[in-house]
Structure formats: C-alpha cells, structure tokens
Task: inverse folding
C-alpha cells in the first residue's frame, strides 16, 4: 500500500492531538471518496499509532450500485485483514429521507461501537463543515448555534472522531487519484432535491465566485467562535441554575438581586426552560429588564422571578 508523505504528515499531528493512538477505531466507510481516503490514511498510520481498525458499512439499498459497493468494501477488508460489519436498510421513501437515513446510520454505528468498545471515526472534511455552518446560518437565528461538527464529540457515551475537518475535498481526491485508490461516486450526491447538495453545488460555489476567494476557512473560524461562545454561556448560566428553588407545585428562579446580560438570559430561557419561540423570547427579555409581568405557557415572570410549573420543567 502506498504512502503519501504530505497527507500522512498533515494528518499525524491531528491524530496525536486527538489522542488517536493505542485505540480501537470503527471507521464508517461508504466507499465514497471521503471515507476511502480516511480508511487508506488510517491503514498507512496503523502500525505507527498502534491502531486496531474495524470497518462499518451501511447499504442504503436505494441504488443499483449499492450491492457492488458493499461487495467491494467487504473484499477490501478481507484483503487487508480488517473486521467488517455491514447493514442493509429497508428502502425509505416519503418524508425527510436524508434525515432518516442519517439517523439509521448513527444508530448502527453507535450500536457496533458500544459492542466493540471503540470510537467511531467519520470522514467529514472542511467542505462538509462549511456547508453545515452556512446551512445553520440560514436556519437558526442564534450566534451560538452556528457551530459546526467537532473533531471530537460524544454521543450516547461513544466518542465520535472527525480527523479530516482540516482537509479540503480536493485534497482527498488528489490523494486517492495519485495512488489510484478505488472509490465510488454516489450519483445521489448530485441530486439537487437535497438541501445539502444545493449548498455544495450551487450556493457555496456562487458565494466563492462573487467574493473571489475561498470562504470555507472563514466559515470554519465562525464555527470555532460559536463553539467558544456556547461554552462560555454554559458556564455563565451555572449561576442562574444555582438559584433554583422548588415549591410544592412550581420552581422559582429569583434573579432580582443579580446582574444578567440579555444574551445570558436568552441562553438560559432556551437551554434551561426550553423557551424557543424567538418573538416570545424577545418579549420575555424586554419584560424582564423593564420589570414588568409576563406569562408564556407554563412560565410566569414577576419582578424578575421566574415561576415554572413542575410538570413543564425541563431543567432538573
């Protein structure tokens, strides 16, 4: 198997920083360019980092090529002595197919990772991160929700690793083509009925053309700043949560004797009290700082005291 010094050299410090050594890794492989590049990179670094690699493949059963792709990765794993796990999904139609397939994928990966006591390694890259941040910009009004995927995160007690978030798609393609590593093109990735594909093929290229430069790195920086902001606000509202007082049929948060920034209060309302209607939230914050009464569903405000009925309480 070939060794691309520049790609492995760039990836190695990332894996080291993420403590990806002496570990069991369940690598999610679709046979597309991104996941095949990740698998080859990890194989080339396996001995150096003392990695125990496993491969998981999900057959979406939506294209004629699906059977050929599964057969290819199964044979690849046999030739490289890699334990291989696969699942064929029932055909899905109607509703948000993209989201439902994603949920099925993660359920399978998490189930296998728990049994293997392994971390899950995913092939998301910088272009994916940029698409996610831009999509969230249009969908969510809050700055702290503009964060993208993280290099390391937890889900149901399983560590999810995304070591390629600093790599552009073209870098991965160049790596595969240089060594003639085989991969499959999923033609559904060109289907513009999916939001993600419109972001990838229409919106981001148009923005780059209009601004005359790559915007992926800037979106990556926005994601990092949003992540820092959310972490900061989580720490700030700890003092607000500490003021919780339970009564027989309600919970009271008395903020009358402390200073609160409007952003802290907004974050508290959403994260702790699950108040997510933006207009009502803004009215609530205005009433709070004007010391006026306000009622919203099962939350009532009186002179900076929030009364929350027990049965609707989100925070415990």
Result:
């Amino acid at each position: 198997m070939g060794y691309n010094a520049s790609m492995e050299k760039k990836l190695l410090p990332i894996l080291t920083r993420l403590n990806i050594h002496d570990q069991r890794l369940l690598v999610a492989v679709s046979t597309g360019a991104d996941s095949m590049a990740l698998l080859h990179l990890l194989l080339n670094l396996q001995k150096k980092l003392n990695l125990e690699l496993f491969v998981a493949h999900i057959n979406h059963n939506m294209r004629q090529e699906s059977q050929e792709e599964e057969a290819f990765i199964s044979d690849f794993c046999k030739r490289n002595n890699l334990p291989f796990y696969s699942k064929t999904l029932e055909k899905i139609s109607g509703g948000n197919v993209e989201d439902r397939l994603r949920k099925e994928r993660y359920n399978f990966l998490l189930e296998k990772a728990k049994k293997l006591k392994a971390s899950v390694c995913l092939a998301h890259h910088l272009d994916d991160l940029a698409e996610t941040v831009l999509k969230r910009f249009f969908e969510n009004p809050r700055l702290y929700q503009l964060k993208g995927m993280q290099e390391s995160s937890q889900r149901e007690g399983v560590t999810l690793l995304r070591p390629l978030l600093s790599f552009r798609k073209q870098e991965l393609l160049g790596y595969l083509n240089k060594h003639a590593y085989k991969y499959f093109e999923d033609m559904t990735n060109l289907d513009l009925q999916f939001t993600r594909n419109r972001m990838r093929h229409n919106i981001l290229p148009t923005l780059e053309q209009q601004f005359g430069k790559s915007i992926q790195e800037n979106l990556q920086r926005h994601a990092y700043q949003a992540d820092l902001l959310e972490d900061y606000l989580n720490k700030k509202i700890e003092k607000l949560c500490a003021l919780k007082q339970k009564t027989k049929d309600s919970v009271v948060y008395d903020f009358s004797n402390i200073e609160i920034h409007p952003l802290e209060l907004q974050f508290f309302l959403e994260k702790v009290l699950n108040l997510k209607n933006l207009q009502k939230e803004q009215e609530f914050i205005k009433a709070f700082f004007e010391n006026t009464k306000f009622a919203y569903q099962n939350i009532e405000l009186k002179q900076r005291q929030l009364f929350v009925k027990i049965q609707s309480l989100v925070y415990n």
